[in-house]
TrEMBL record:
This is histidine kinase. Residues 41-259 form the Histidine kinase domain. The lineage of its organism: Bacteria, Pseudomonadati, Acidobacteriota, Terriglobia, Terriglobales. It is found in: Membrane. Residues 1-37 form the PAC domain. It comes from Acidobacterium capsulatum (strain ATCC 51196 / DSM 11244 / BCRC 80197 / JCM 7670 / NBRC 15755 / NCIMB 13165 / 161).
Amino acid sequence: PVEYVACPLVDNGRVSGIVIAFQDITERQRLDRMKDEFISTVSHELRTPLTSLRAALGLIAGGALQRRPEKVQQMFDVAIGNCDRLVRLVNDILDFERLGSGKMQLQYVQMPARDLLQRAVDLQHSSAQKANITLRVEAEPMDLWVDADRILQTLGNLISNAIKFSPAGADVLVRASVRGKAEAVIEVRDHGRGIPPEKISLIFERFQQVDASDSRAMGGTGLGLAICRRIVRQHGGQIWVESEVGKGSSFFFTVARNVAVLPTASTA
Ligand code: ADP
């Protein structure tokens, strides 16, 4: 589709010609469509826990406390779970939006790779323990040049996915290796269910799940990997996954290793 603007050329009060500017609006229409889709998915994602929360509160307000006291604790648990989900969703939506609009300024620091990885693993310790997953860290001695909070957020998303999609008793490896002159590659490897090849290119897009039930059943928001990609790209790095169904997945991303080489910012 093409849009045009016509403008008359006036010379001494007389129209001497017309300038017509044509503009291809395919890209703009694509972006508008993506925005509409995003808003409709977000509204739907917000409505589901709200409806459930409303139902639980309605039952309690309607006298469930007197009539079925044994059920009320369960209703509170459901309500709290839905509130937590709403908070996670809203935080993820805000992060995703801020990262995309360039409003999130990175605070770079130099940090030993091992310290960063160990901190990320420590933050996931209790959920790993609950799922009976062992987290291991391997890091070559080197310093990274990163926004530590944002890279911890990325590692947190990747490690929590690795835990979610692994069977009890499995282990997850978080490793940092030197790559080239100025880069490091960080890997989060699991021995979980893996990702079918036709889904690999989709999972870094917002609200894309391999299985439609993944999001709610696993407590995710569907924005985790989309946020990871924006953070890594803003660091000037790349993110990708290698996976085999039934064997497991390895998520990789690159970051700068050398303080002298400043990464170039870009947004997804
Ligand atoms: P979610 O909040 O649903 O986890 P993500 O963006 O983090 O959203 O992940 C998108 C989807 O990619 C997940 O719902 C899941 O289907 C798939 N996925 C992500 N990580 C893994 C993994 N380690 N193993 C298998 N599937 C994964």
